[in-house]
Structure formats: structure tokens, C-alpha cells
Amino acid sequence: MMAHLAWLELRQQVGGRVFGIVFAISVLMVVGGMAIDELRVGMADEGARIGAAAIVRTHLVWSLFFLFTAAALVGEAVLRDELTGFASLVRATPVAAGSHALGRFMGAFGAVLLCFVSVPVAMIAGGVALGLGSGPLGSHLFAFFTLAFPNLLLACALFYALAGVTRSMTGCLLGAAGLLTLYGIAGESGSAGLGLIEPFGFAAVTGATLSCSVAQRDAGWPPLAGELLANRALWLGVAAALVGLGTWLQTRRGARDDRPRPSASSLSGGAGRSTGERSSPASPRSEPGGTVIVTQIAARTAFEARRIVPTPTFAALLMMGLAAAAAAASRVDGTPATVAALATSFRLVPVVVALFFAGELFWAEREHKVEPIMTATPVRGAVLVFAKFLALALVLLSLAAAIAGAGAATELAMGRWPAPRAYLMWYVLPQTYDWLLLGALAIFLQSLAPNKLAGWGYMVFYLIGSLALNKLGWQDPHYRYGGYPGAPLPPALSGAHGVGWYRLGWGTAAAAMIALACGRGLPRARPAR
User: Fold this and answer.
1) I need a labelling partner for 344 at 20 to 30 A (CA). Which of 90, 259, 413, 466 fits?
2) What's the number of domains the chain is made of?
3) Do 74 and 221 fall within a single domain?
4) If the chain, 529 residues long, is cut into consecutive pieces of 10 residues, what is the mean pLDDT of each piece?
5) Are residues 146 and 194 in the same domain?
6) Exposed/middle/buried for 476, CB within 10 Å: 0-12, 13-18, 19+?
């Protein structure tokens, strides 16, 4: 039965839109990286393009890129029944909750592996098409099964467990951010010990090939021994433990859901009165005035902000951001240098907050099945969307203030007196504005998307495209959304001129996108056929 469930899940995931889009994008980017030097994102400049070192490095880098794909596929598989409202019906079947969840996980993990096959297929096909050859077959097998397979299993297992704990896609995001943080700590180090704890194997591979020449690295793959073998065994064990934890959580949740519930009649307080209330005519809907609209926006903004700020997910992201800010501030001396370090190094968490929480806010009513109720209220759809943007703005402002506070506190701890006004004018306000531009784009793309995952995908493609443009040297702020001379430093530190005009122009574009999103309103449920 479990194998049958895994097969059904695999078929559903492979036939989905996310699988096809990611497969096509990865093929294009891998082949493009082989053909154009500027597109070799994360790749070393030395060595043959289809040598063993390039094959190993490509598999490692793309296992990192596939974190969000794994989060989307595994999180969707675990949470699908609750999001679609069929959870009670599925749990009424004779299949145990743990077996059902494990079968879903196996199918989703198989889909992630099949999607990742695009990487070696693209390398082989691209190498043959470019006249470079297919590369050593043993290197492809070693890189896929020894490096990529354990990395993808660890990522999927972590998202499986986090989805069981948080019951939210943002829980999967937290796992992705945590793994990226571990990679950032030790990803490029070949020191003893760090190569063991870094989960993706970058440091272990670097340590195993540290004494090899470029020709030796191109000729063969690193030996599976010593620290590399210990690293793979350690994280495979961690992945197995996480799969067991996720299955236990699903089993426990299924046991809780089997408890008897009060009948609908007892909750409604009698069918007769409830029927009478339903048959009463609805009061005519009146158009609110300007003062009422302002009150509605303020109330809804506070409500939407409470969807994010008190959550464990945001708290964990904030803690990781504060730790990164403190680490960056501790390596420099003086407020200007600290602000510059914060602006250039602290960039992951704000992107994550703007990207993912925009989706969480925009689709909240649809996912919680209250969209028909909100439609029946006198609150306009534009008010609801604008309040979500303002809530995201408040969250980003508080994030910038917290990071600036961490930098100032670090200065105090090191015996230096910070300049509060400099932090406000050089970091908090400029960074909040830059992040708001990204938040406006995220809200706008969510309003165009058919679902939340597609909206996230649009933003990921935008970020990947921006990275590719950077590698190509196309960094002119005239056509780079949110760009300005000297970015990401403020003009007081970069010395650039004309920054205000660029900010005004991109701010106007962001305002236009928010206006269009407000005009479209919240997503509506499809009418039943």
C-alpha cells in the first residue's frame, strides 16, 4: 500500500507545474553555464567545463539551488489534504496516518530526484552539443549518488519534519534558511571538523581535493574516504532520523484527529434557529466613506501584521538575522564600517521575509476558507490588499530596526559608542525602502499567480534572473529594478550622486504595481461546476 501511495504521489508531482518549470529552468541554466562563462553561477573559473571537478561542483551547487524545490514539493505533499479540505476524509480510510504520510514523502522525494536528473542530463547533452564530450561517466554517478542524493534526502527529510511540526509551508522555508546558514558558515572551508558538520559536503570535498592540481581534479573525483565519508554517513543518519520524526508526528496527529468531535447540531445550538438565521435577508451593502476606509486599513494592517510577527517562523528568521548582523559588525570598526557591513552582508533574511510572507498574507483568506465571508463584508478588496502591503512594510521596518540595533549593541559590547542617527538615516530608512520595493513586486506577482506556489516561483525566477544579469555585467541601475548608483550602500557611504531620482523612479513603479494588485483584489475561489 505504501509503495502504491508513493507511486501515486510521484505521478502527481511529476505532472505538476512546479516540476516542469524547475526541470526546464535547470536544463537551460546548466547548459547556459557551460556555454557562457558569465553564467557559471557558483562554478570555479579554472578547469575543464566537463571535467570531473566541474561535474562534482555543479551537482553540489545545484543541490543547494534545489532547496526551494524540495520545500515546495515535500511541503505540498504533506499539507495537501489540509489545504484542500480533504484531511478528514483521507484519515477515515483504513490506511494508517504514518504510512500515508511516509508514502507521500517517498513519492515527493522521488519527484525531487527525478527533477534533479535534469542537471546531469543537461551537462551531458550540453557537453556533446558544444563539442566538449560527455565527461567521465563515473564522475556523474559519483556526484549524483554520493553528493546530490544525500543532500536532497536531507533537505526533503527536514522539510517533511518541519511541515509536520508547523503545518505550514513557511516551516519548510525555515529549514531552507537554516541549511543555507550552515552552508554559509562552513561551505568553503576545508578545515578539519568544519568539513564534517557542513551538511552539503562543500567543505569535505574541498578538503579531499586541497592538495590536488587542476589537472588531477579534472581527471577524477575525490576519494570517498576520511572526512568526506564521515560527512556523508553523518548526514544520511540525520536524514533518516528526520524521516522517522516526521512520520511519528503524522501518526500522532492522525491519532488526535480520530477523537470524537461534537456534532454540528450541538455546536449550532439547534437546527431551527440556525435555519432561521440563514434564511434572513442580508442587509444591503453600503459604500464606506473616507474616514471609514482609513479605519479599516488601520485595523486590517494591525491584524495582518499579527499574522507574521508573533509566529515562531519569523522569530527564528529574526534570530538568525541578528546573529548574522552581530557577526558582520564584530569584524569592522566604527559606525560607518558597521553600517556598510550590514548593508552588504545581511541580505538573505529580508528577501525571505518579503518573498514568502507576501505569499502567506496574500493567500491567507483563500487558504483558511474565509474568502466568501470577507467578500460579503463592506470592506473593499483594494483595502484588504493594501493593508497586507502595509503589514509587510511594518514587518520589514521592524526587521531593519532590529538589525541596526544588533549592530549598535555589538559596537557597545566592543567598547565603541555608536551613532544612533547614522543607523537611522544610513541603514534603517534606506534598507526598509529597498526591501519595500521587493515586497511590492512580491505582492504584485502573487496577484498575477494562480496560486501561492506559482507566486513564489515567479519571485524565485526574478531573483535567479537578477543573479544571471549580475554575472553578465548588466548592472546599470536604469534597467535593474530597485537599482541605484552605489547600491546597496547609502549615498553617505558610497559617495554616489543622483540616488534620490533612482529611488523616486523605482518607488513610482512599485506604487503602480501595488495599485494594480489592489485593483485585482484578493484571489477568489473558483465557482463549482
Assistant:
1) 413
2) 2
3) yes
4) 82 81 79 66 61 87 82 80 62 67 89 92 87 84 93 91 75 64 48 69 82 77 86 92 88 59 43 40 50 83 82 64 72 86 78 83 78 67 87 90 86 85 92 93 91 82 76 77 87 86 93 92 60
5) yes
6) exposed
